[in-house]
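Structure ticket #2291
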Amino acid sequence: MQASEVSRAMAAAMSIASSLDLAVDDAIVLHDSNKLTLRLLPCDVLARVAPVDQQVSQFEVELAQRLAESGCPVAALEPRVEPRVHERDGFVVTLWTYYEPVTPLEVSPAEFADALEQLHAGMRKLDVPTPHFTDRVEHAQQLLANRERTPALADADRELLRDTLRSLSGAIGERGGAEQLLHGEPHPGNLLTTKNGLLFIDLETCCRGPVEFDLAHAPGEVGENYPGVDQDLLRECRILVLAIITTWRWDRGDQLPNGRRLGAEWLSQIRAALGRNGPDTDG
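Resolution: structure written out below.
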């Protein structure tokens, strides 16, 4: 979130929580990217704040409720208030249970895989309209085609990303494998270690696709512990996901800390992955 907006976003969250009879006199920033995550005290509530025009909070709230009711390992909404999206001063705010981190914070690949398998099993029972993973590919392709949005990206790198996105999304689609509702970005940053076990957060990224697309966001060993994985498909998904998130880092509006440095590192990783035994990206 832009620095100029952080104080306003914090004030909006504190004001909303206070209006709901939650005791609030302080807010601690836990995470700041496109969305601001706050711990409100002394009520000990987690607030997620986003600009009105950059959020899908209603979808996330409804999905979190349904998954929690199904026993899926997801973070719960704050039980002391009505589960809904609040709006104030140009921001939307959702209120969630705050989970105190527990030790050890290190999650084994087997534990990670088991939690993700449980989440996928619950998601297979839901019929909700969500984007397809190829929508994310298309958005990245649009960024690459718009030089005003990605002015610092070198021509050779732009071509590498464009060709990688096209060839791998096509190869994955041609496999015709089973698809289902996915988390969308189940990387370690979206997995909490709590006294209630492992819990996934940030459900606004949900999409449809093969489970390998989700596994591509997790550490490599997780895919080795998840049953029934197509390892060739997983490899393709890993490179595709890397190409997508690398493209995002070159968007001039990207707010990820050290995003440009990461983008440069990931370009090198893509070249290395394709250079070993990657698909033909010359066409």
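Closing remark: The radius of gyration is 20 Å.
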